Amino acid sequence: RSNPEVFESRMEKRDEVKKQPVGRSRQGEFIRTMEEKARQIFFAERSGMKTSKGGFTKDKTLDSILNVEMVKEKSAEEIKQIWNQYFSAKDTVYAVIPAEKFDLMWKRAQKCPSFLYALPRKEGYEFFVGQWSGTELHFTSLINIQTQGETAPSQLVLYHYPELQKEKGIVLMTAEMDSKFLVVQEAQCLANQVPLFYATDRSQTYALVETFNHSPSEFKYMSVIAELEQSGLGRQLRPTQASDKS
Question: Which residues lie closer than 8 Å to 205 by C-beta, 6 or more apart?
Answer without folding.
Answer: 196, 197, 227
